[in-house]
Amino acid sequence: MTSTALVRTRGAVRPPSESVTAAPAADNPGAIARNVAQPFDAGWIDGIRINPSAAERRVATLRGRRSVKQDAQAGWLLKALTCIDLTTLNGDDTAERVRRLCAKAVMPVRPDVLAALGFADRPLHTGAVCVYHRFVATAVDALAGTGIPVAAVSTGFPAGMVPHGLKLKEIEASVRNGASEIDVVITREHALGGHWQRLYDEMLDFRRAAGAAHVKAILATGELKTLRNVAKASLVCMMAGADFIKTSTGKEGVNATPLVTLVMLRMIRQYEARTGFRVGYKPAGGVSTARLALDYQTLMKEELGRAWLEPNLFRIGASSLLADIERQLEHHVTGRYSAFNRHPIG
């Protein structure tokens, strides 16, 4: 199925201009150029059209299109765990729980299982640890020297119903405490009312407040009502400089789904075609099994290509997912499934 059958934008797609291209940092030649905010383009937004039937048919065929087994599946799952934003976002979080979570992020799979898989001497850790602002400093201290970034949820997470000025101060405070990634929630009212300029201005402010920290824009797709709203909100956030677009807070009634994922990935593809910048994607909420992780990896690979299977462009916001991946890897090595309580994460 071609991209035009699912997500279509009126008007020609412009090639990347010289003014928006950027070279990777000299000290990290493998890095991608960071997304740069584009001028607000109402025509681009208004021209978006969605074909829900085509999207549903595409998603329905997902598991029948590709299946990985045995060693190949173990390899895909090892890759998946390196893309996990290992998360604790509960009202009863404590500093000690966050430290335990960080220890699990550093060593996500038992050494004997890794050795049996041929990874004894290869460092393997999760993509990040994601916590509330209150625990950013604790996580930064616990992860010192590991290379694992700390992500902070911000802007009045999860509802985003605090004054705009306080949202910016919260972002700035988390960055000062050492967070190198900020997961921000958009004001859903802007998207539901079609106030796309307001959403653009809000996201632009979030990006500026974050400075060098990368910004993941949480759309709360389960509350946006239509796939067209999801597509437009995705585009507006990328247009305003978001480094990632993320489905959900994990607190909505409906969180990440393959259907909204497909729409968001098609918008990422369209954005790259027009601007030259690659934007990352993060499903969050409900991705709790290895099977689901493989589904999302398959969508990423088929829709965007191999580059989007790396943690600089793909994250999975999860807490219990890691335990199931570890169970599947242990089963691959031993032929036996273990109980979940043998794989604590925090």
SSE order and pairing:
Blueprint: E1 7-9, H1 42-46, E2 48-50, H2 52-60, H3 62-65, H4 70-81, E3 84-87, H5 95-106, H6 111-116, E4 128-131, H7 136-142, E5 150-154, H8 164-176, E6 181-185, H9 188-192, H10 196-210, E7 214-218, H11 227-239, E8 244-246, H12 258-275, E9 280-282, H13 290-304, E10 316-318, H14 321-334
Parallel strand pairs: 3-4, 3-10, 4-5, 5-6, 6-7, 7-8, 8-9
Antiparallel strand pairs: 1-2
Helix pairs in contact: 2-12, 4-13, 4-14, 8-10, 10-11, 11-12, 12-13
Describe this structure in words.
It catalyses: 2-deoxy-D-ribose 5-phosphate = D-glyceraldehyde 3-phosphate + acetaldehyde. It is an enzyme of class 4 (lyase). Residues 1-26 are annotated as: Disordered. The chain has helices spanning 42-46, 52-60, 62-65, 70-81, 95-106, 111-116, 136-142, 164-176, 188-192, 196-210, 227-239, 258-275, 290-304, 321-334; strands spanning 7-9, 48-50, 84-87, 128-131, 150-154, 181-185, 214-218, 244-246, 280-282, 316-318. Helix 4 (70-81) packs antiparallel against helix 14 (321-334). It is built from 14 helices and 10 strands. By secondary structure, it is α/β, with parallel strands linked by helices. The longest helix has 18 residues, at 258-275. The chain has a single domain (70-342), classed as Aldolase class I (TIM Barrel, Alpha-Beta Barrel), CATH 3.20.20.70. Helix 8 (164-176) links the parallel strand 5 (150-154) and strand 6 (181-185). Helix content is 43%, strand content 11%. The termini are far apart. The radius of gyration is 19 Å and the shape is globular. The protein has an 8-stranded parallel sheet.
